[in-house]
Write a structure and sequence with these properties.
alpha/beta, 6-stranded mixed sheet, endonuclease, hydrolase, DNA binding, DNA damage
Length: about 160
């Protein structure tokens, strides 16, 4: 099973792709889609859509795992990330991928065993789990790998995933 993990964002959207066969997990790819702050919002959303489609076309994942939004203090940021997340979900559905969603707490708990772990801890654990030679960057990409890992564990030990 090839899993696409996504850490939704408006300026930076992290993605991570892993292959899971039985209990063996291999890193396929990871990175980020960036949009420019000065660009019109519709253009930024279109870029997310087009870049995400390219990633899906190139890697052909079988399932997608997306981190749910958490509380934002800044309403404008929350709306923009919500809009980006809508584009992400639409793109995944259009591409025919089953979509599973996880809260940030579920992802951190699955990866580190502690639901309030720090970004650096997520990076170090993912680096170890996926036998990476360097720290996955940006943070959003490490988080996306963690979302994919969480989904792998959820599929191996059902009970935590919410399929959409």
């Amino acid at each position: 099973m090839r899993i696409l993990g996504i850490d939704p964002g408006f300026g930076t959207l992290g993605y991570g792709i892993i292959d899971a066969v039985a209990s063996r997990v291999e890193l396929v790819d990871y990175g980020a889609i960036y949009t420019e702050p000065g660009e019109p919002i519709p253009d930024r959303l279109l870029k997310i859509y087009m870049e995400l489609k390219k990633i899906i076309d190139f890697h052909s994942p079988s399932e997608a795992a997306v981190e749910e939004l958490f509380f934002f203090r800044n309403v404008t940021t929350a709306i923009q990330v919500g809009e980006a997340r809508g584009v992400i979900l639409l793109t995944l559905r259009e591409m025919g991928l089953p979509i599973f969603e996880y809260t940030p707490h579920q992802v951190k708990q699955a990866v580190t065993g502690y639901g309030r772990s720090e970004k650096g801890q997520i990076q170090r654990v993912m680096m170890k789990f996926l036998r990476m030679k360097e720290t996955p960057k940006p943070d959003d990409a490490a988080d996306a790998l963690a979302v994919a890992w969480c989904h792998f564990l959820s599929r191996s030990y059902p009970g935590g995933a919410r399929k959409k």
